[in-house]
Amino acid sequence: QKEVEQNSGPLSVPEGAIASLNCTYSDRGSQSFFWYRQYSGKSPELIMFIYSNGDKEDGRFTAQLNKASQYVSLLIRDSQPSDSATYLCAVKRGNTPLVFGKGTRLSVIA
Amino acid sequence: DVKVTQSSRYLVKRTGEKVFLECVQDMDHENMFWYRQDPGLGLRLIYFSYDVKMKEKGDIPEGYSVSREKKERFSLILESASTNQTSMYLCASSLKGQGGGYTFGSGTRLTVV
To answer: In sequence order, what are the beta bridge partners of A12?
Structure first.
């Protein structure tokens, strides 16, 4: 059974701080890694993807991948109250369906 | 922008009814998926399709069927709705291949009474 594990939270950070969201996965053959943001009552939206070990930056967001440790993380710099949402980690191998974690709820306190 | 459109935002149906949830995408994506999302259980895959006329069972296909007669349209069918099928239903599409991240529709909140 392929699994993706995330701490459910809530993770509370003050406005302006760095939020660090973590994810581990069980399938060592996973090749693609995604982070989705889901606001309450809305559908998930893709914010980052990463395929290679290391860091990938996009604005205030940085995705980090360590395939040896089967670990993916998302850093949000200068966190804003509008970043308060549930963040879903998802992984896939080839053209198989994404396997999602249950998400981490982030709360940014003004 | 890729758009995935789900026909209804909210639906209320009676137990035993046959329910159709429609999903249409406009970016020529090969892959389409149906999930349900429930508090504490996360996203659970019901069915998916890699091509027209093709369908594959996901993790929780019982009580559901699907139809994909055209590339852009993927329908989820609840053969005989039950109260335990009350949920948020999410359709998604993606390109074929390793890099295919999903684009989700806005979701249908189905209540079965």
So the answer is: A107
Q: How far apart are CA B24 and CA B11, in angstroms?
A: 17
Q: In the Cβ-directed half-sphere of B11, how many Cα atoms lie within 13 Å?
A: 25
Specify whether the CB–CB gap between A48 and A63 falls below 8 A.
yes
Could you write out the DSSP letters of every residue in A43-90?
Answer: --EEEEEE-SSEEEEETTEEEEEETTTTEEEEEESS--GGG-EEEEEE
**Tens digits of per-residue pLDDT, B22-79?**
999 998 999 999 999 999 899 999 999 999 999 999 999 999 999 999 999 999 999 9
Instruction: Please identify among residues 60-99 of chain B the ones whose CB lies closer than 8 Å to any CB of chain A.
Output: 90, 96-99
pLDDT at B98 over 90: no
Q: How far apart are CA B17 and CA A32, in angstroms?
A: 39
Query: Which of A95, A99, A104, A105 to mutate to probe the B interface, most B CBs <10 Å?
Result: A95
Residue A25 pLDDT exceeds 70: yes
3-state secondary structure of B10: strand
Interface check A35 vs B, CB under 8 A: no
Look-up of token digits 């295919």: B100
